[in-house]
Amino acid sequence: MSIWSEWHAYLPDYLDGLTVTLRLTGVSLLVGLPLGVALALALTAPSKAIRRPAVLVVEIGRGAPALVVLYFVYYGLPQLSLTWSSFACATIALGFTTAAYTADIFRAGVNSIPVGHREAAQALGLSHGKELRLIVLPQAIRVVVPPLVGFCILLYQGTSLAYAVSVPELLSRAYSQASITYQFTTTLILAGLVYAALSLAVVALLNVRWPRRTRHLADVTAPAESPTATGR
Which residues have CB under 8 Å from 124's CB, separation 6+? Predict the structure, then answer.
């Protein structure tokens, strides 16, 4: 049997695994991105009582390997009578890691807004909440889209960690096929190609569309962070 005929035979099962991979990526983003925004706002809050717990959560989330977090949720929490399915555990673990990493991306976006814009909002008497909602966040979101897309690609590839807790995602399907046929080389190459095809397609789309939209922002945004805004 040629490699092409082998890949043709494996592909339907791989596509089922890819569906689970994309679903896990999407749900993890739905959990992690709102938490990331909330943590970023806490990191830039004037009050130390709000800022310090947020810093602790972000540092733990960034410092702990995602696989360790996944094992903790899947094997550790059941000892505290907290038991979920393998897909839910993977979602919680990857969502937590997503929140920690995207919090820093959102924080950098908030701090990239020119100080003069924030001073103008304060001069108009806007509250801190209105300043964030009307002035800071609309500009920051446009700045953070390219790094967020890059993180989404990493998360999509990182869902392969869910294989460790028996989520039937793409790598799990590839390993199952390899265990049956003992053709590890061809099965893993095909899995890598499926991962790479989607990742490169998203990168190409980003390169085509985003530079034109962000070029004008580079002229008006200040790269330096405001020490009073970060407080870190």
Answer: none
pLDDT digits (tens, 9 = 90+) for 81-95: 888 999 999 999 999
What does each C-alpha distance from 182 to 11, 185, 186, 206 come to in angstroms? 17, 9, 10, 38
State phi, psi for 66 to the nearest 5 degrees.
-60, -35
* Orientation angle between helical segments 86-111 and 48-63, nearest 10 degrees: 130
Average pLDDT over the chain reads 85
pTM value surpassing 0.85: no
Judged by DSSP in three states, 224 sits in coil
Q: Contact at 8 Å (CB) between 169 and 160? A: yes
Q: Are 212 and 203 in contact (CB under 8 A)?
A: no
Q: How confident is the model at residue 224 (pLDDT cuts 50, 70, 90)?
A: very low
Q: How far apart are CA 45 and CA 221, in angstroms?
A: 20
Classify 223 as helix, strand or coil: coil
